[in-house]
Amino acid sequence: MALVARVRALLLPGSRLRGATLGRAANGGGAGARRALSHRVLVEADPAAGVAVVKFRNPPVNSLSLEMLTELGICLEKLENDKTVRGIVLTADRPGIFSAGLDLTEMCGRNPAHYAEFWKAVQELWLRLYQSNMALGAAINGTCPAGGCLLSLTCDYRILADNPKYTIGLNETQLGIFAPFWFKDTMVNTIGHRATERALQLGLLFTPAEALQVGLVDQVVPEDQVQSTALSVMSQWLAIPDHARQLTKTMMRKATVDQLLKHREADIQNFVSFISRDSIQKVLQVYLQKLRKKNH
Ligand SMILES: CC/C=C\CC(=O)SCCNC(=O)CCNC(=O)[C@H](O)C(C)(C)COP(=O)(O)OP(=O)(O)OC[C@H]1O[C@@H](n2cnc3c(N)ncnc32)[C@H](O)[C@@H]1OP(=O)(O)O
């Protein structure tokens, strides 16, 4: 289902998004600051600075469910159409977990049509972020595995909180699955081929010190300074004339984007046939059960 169709479905009677205040701006915060709220995404815009802070709030772990992907997509589209916004900082509404990555329940025990719809939504969000003309920063105020790491890698820079519990990486192989080529390419574009090969094969989750060393993040700062640092770095990116920065960004990312655009349908089919395998379903069920057992 395309984004518009998914939005319509979310707005059907009984849907949890129905009645949400998505896009409704209310005055609050500092002079000129605006807040907009959907169920799972909070936007705090500062038109004077030209920056919006987009906060994930999909408890308990900010997993990227189909609904979360859709709401995030809508929110980013609105910001792209807002002439007062030139930069976005992605962060978690509450410190602790930036995002636990793709929602495993979307990939377990469902039918092929659902897997295809979910994967298309993942592709759409990546394309929207990776091709964004805006300057994007990630204020990583919590642990950041797999799909969470991918979100941060679409940004132009990453600031990570200095807390050894907050690890970051594409850990898919640890689950018994693997990162598709465009996840891999996004990481290669950030830390290079050799470091990516090692990180992906071993499914490494890097501590802040390791992530800084390998170049996965640009700065590690005390936990209470993550957002302020991300905003201050943003002002450097926004000091560059937009057209020059945007043309450069497009040039740097075009080959990677084109690869997915060219193989989009095949990538969906690959994902569906891989994830539908009995052996993969079993591995994911075991992983989910292990996560759940901790709490019961
Ligand atoms: C082809 C590419 C495919 C996939 C790419 C991906 O993104 S796969 C997802 C990979 N993500 C992970 O491996 C992270 C898994 N989660 C964790 O390691 C921990 O949950 C985390 C994030 C460190 C937080 O730990 P914490 O102790 O704070 O929470 P807990 O583990 O108790 O989790 C709370 C409930 O959330 C459920 N949950 C966690 N992660 C996910 C997830 N990714 N998708 C769906 N659900 C998730 C967990 O089962 C708990 O559920 P509950 O029923 O409340 O026990």
UniProtKB/TrEMBL annotation:
**Pfam families listed in its UniProt record:** ECH_1 (PF00378)
Gene Ontology MF annotations: delta(3)-delta(2)-enoyl-CoA isomerase activity
Q: In which pathway does it act?
A: Lipid metabolism; fatty acid beta-oxidation
Q: Which reaction does it catalyse?
A: (3Z)-octenoyl-CoA = (2E)-octenoyl-CoA; a (3E)-enoyl-CoA = a 4-saturated (2E)-enoyl-CoA; (3Z)-decenoyl-CoA = (2E)-decenoyl-CoA; (3Z)-dodecenoyl-CoA = (2E)-dodecenoyl-CoA
Function in brief: Key enzyme of fatty acid beta-oxidation. Able to isomerize both 3-cis (3Z) and 3-trans (3E) double bonds into the 2-trans (2E) form in a range of enoyl-CoA species, with a preference for (3Z)-enoyl-CoAs over (3E)-enoyl-CoAs. The catalytic efficiency of this enzyme is not affected by the fatty acyl chain length.
Task: Name the protein family.
Answer: Belongs to the enoyl-CoA hydratase/isomerase family.
Organism of this sequence = Orycteropus afer afer
* Cellular component GO terms, alphabetical: mitochondrial matrix
The protein's name: Enoyl-CoA delta isomerase 1, mitochondrial
Quick one: which gene encodes this?
A: ECI1
**Claim: Mitochondrion is one of the keywords in the record:** yes
Q: Which UniProt keywords apply?
A: Acetylation, Fatty acid metabolism, Isomerase, Lipid metabolism, Mitochondrion, Transit peptide
Source organism, top-level taxon: Eukaryota
Q: What is its main location?
A: mitochondrion
| Gene Ontology terms describing biological process | fatty acid beta-oxidation
**Subunit structure and binding partners:** Homotrimer.
Q: What EC number(s) has UniProt assigned to this enzyme?
A: 5.3.3.8
Keyword Lipid metabolism part of the UniProt annotation: yes
Localization in the cell: Mitochondrion matrix
